[in-house]
Design brief:
By secondary structure, the chain is an alpha+beta fold. The chain contains 20 helices and 16 strands. The chain has a five-stranded mixed β-sheet with strand order 5-4-3-6-9, sandwiched between helices. A four-stranded antiparallel β-sheet has the order 10-13-14-15, with no helix packed on it.
Amino acid sequence: MSHEELHDDGGELTGYQSIRNEVIHRHQTRQSARSIARDLGLSRSRVAQIIREHRQGRDATLAAENATPPASLGAPPKHRKSKLDPFEPQLKHLLARYPRITATRAWEELKRSGYDGAYTILRQRIKQLRVRPTKPLTVRFETAPGAQAQMDWATYEIDFTQEGKRRIQLFSYLLGYSRRQYIYFTERQDFDSTVRQHIKAFEHLGGVAAVCLYDNMKVVVTRWEDDQPLYNTRFLAFATHYGYKPWACRVRRPQTKGKVERPFHYLETNLLNGREFRSLEHLNEVARWWLSQVADVRLHGTTRKTPLELHTEEQPHLLPLPSLQFDTAQVVYRVVDTDGTILYANNRYSVPWRLVGEQLPVRITAEGLIVYNRSLSEVAGHVLLQGHAGQRRLDPSHAPPRDHEAQMERLRERFAELGEIGVRYLEGLQSKHLYTKHHAQKILALLHAYSKQDVVAAMDRAVQYHAYGFSCLERILAHQATPKPSWQQLGESEQKTLTRLAESEPIGPRHSQDYQDLLYGTQPSREEPHEPNDQATDQTLGDVISRGSSIVPRVDPEASGNIEDPADDGRS
């Protein structure tokens, strides 16, 4: 009836809205409902319904009492009777008791109770009745200037035009208030890379935030116990040096540090999208330009200001940088191979040829690699190789002299250090082998794996049977000698240090007040005298404290001999 076509003297009125408009117009002009129905060809009940709906729509009180869904949403679904209706209480009980029960299992249970309806109807009813778990609402909050920063890593595979496809890591550090960011692409996510990039981020941003949020990376968090994180002690020492507090987020809650997670998407769609890069170095050059010319000056969608503008307000609230930078250098030990090189991160670096066979300390910095001899004098320095493994960096001055006699003279000096049997063995080696220097250098390298006494005994046996050469001596050692354990493969100076520490007098138990006196310089409040052993202990402890920073250099505990350090694996 509401969509029928009607005609009057003024023309044609079509559609429900036209009828409704005409009825309401005539009603407002005080025309009676009977007259309106007669003129428009409608029933009086239809005219009364239109007028009543019009009044309800204009009266807020009546509209609230007779609220109905808008007509644009369509008619509400009609509930038809089903064979499942009598079993709905039982179905609700099953879902309350077993929230994860499947439709098949529920069907089996209801069939035992007499249900003979279809499985499809049951599945649809379970979908309506099952309570869906609701995710907790995440509330965004803003931090005060200098109060918080967020740090994270991301991994990408980029096809460089010169270096080919490589997997690289992206370091990102972002200030929570200003949203100003520091990024840098590296080859690995190990401890040294993480700490070095933190320092560069602090310098780039002109200070340190009081708290920094992290996920559960092993560099920061060793493990969780009793719902509390146990932090990496080395990383805590770094954070303490700069005066900020690391804060580990809960597992599987990346939204806790969403301010640093979201910029990765912006970086992927802006910096990395639609650009080609020649190498990792070129990528970092473009990243530095992108930070200063794009990211820092864009209008942020949340703050409605540029990060650079807000950073001007935030910088006075950042913690100042210390005058002494945290030492991020790593110390490892490497044995010089017979070709006069050492191995680090699957690349080789040359050292003076006279050091073949010796185990030397190597200090790894962000820019280069420094090699020291046993007296801790620098003997070689190289810029770290980047890119593919298997590269070599050689210094011509490290190569042996071209003078054959000068080389042999140096080898004679090394073999003379082994005693008379060493000189006799070298003479026999010269008489039997054409490439004497090659065999002699490889034999000297055996002094790292075996003790000097075992090598001399093997040379004595080889001289008796005229078995000269590296292979012969190696077989004799494998048969009658035992390789040195890893702790004995340390250099002599390191062994002396360990021996001194092992043989020193142990420090006995002391009252906690003594440590307070040492820390704060106050006098003991207790009157009882110390025993003589305590006085000796006081002197020993004072000496240790006064010399604590220079007793033993920081050493990679996993690197000894030819054992590779974590950097050789590409990740920590």
